[in-house]
User: What shape does this take?
Amino acid sequence: MNIEQLLQDYNIPYVVDGHKHSTRGWVNTHCPFCTGSQDFHLGIHIESGVSHCWRCGPHNTANVISKILHIPVSQAYQILEKYQYGTPYKSRNSRIEEPRVNIQPFKLPNPCQKLNIAGRRYLRNRGFNSKQLERDWNLLQTPPISYLDKIDYGNRIIVPIYWKGEMVSFQGRDITGRHNRKYLACPSYREKVKHSDIVYGHPDTLGYTDTLILVEGVFDVWRLGKMAVCTFGTSLKLPQILNLKPLANNFIILYDAEKTAQEQARQLSVKLKALGKRTRIVTLDEGDPADLKQDEADRLVTELLEDQNP
Assistant: This one.
């Protein structure tokens, strides 16, 4: 959307990235719904056109334009339609994103094989059906000696990460308890798509369901099943949030119960609502979904989906 051009043409004051209340990818104007000081708190996303005030929350962009220009909402929709198409207007203050080109082709660590006795034992000790996980999620494993670009990936379960039906990255989980880093991702220069820009879920589910359960890690996904996706932690960046938009209309956020994770869950909920999504935050009494027994997890998923679609 040529949102900057719209604001210029209608003499609506705005700021872009560089101002304290504006972030990259957004233009900010005074919120017509807020009381008190006017300081560019309302952001309009350049690509999607969604509006969100950092003080009073999400708004329909047509309602925003209607309120600012003192015109009917129907007329505001006509104005937005006019600026919806064509080459996106580039801010003179914004940095131009260069196309991302892999320096090296995507590869898995070498050697990399099917799960062996050690890998199956590790998963069973965590309460998982190793054969089912291997079948459903295409899990692999590295032997004690396995490298990629001189990076030691030995003794790890390799979790392929798929996006749009294609393996684009991977994550390796230590099974020995001796490595300093439990999780070791694919080097960014070999990823076809940065895993931090997308989510981990089953290819049969992503984009094909109305409701998704958002969790933190891959083990949480395995416990809850194909209706869950993980965000690789709780600190989501804008590309990851935007990539969630086409996947579902309803999101159930099931992060860990700790204070920091719950605050991130609330922020994610606000941002998804700004994209027109329905959200609900659910918290376990303790621990995380991966710690549940399988029958408890199955029952929880059933209850969450039934509550979402009464």
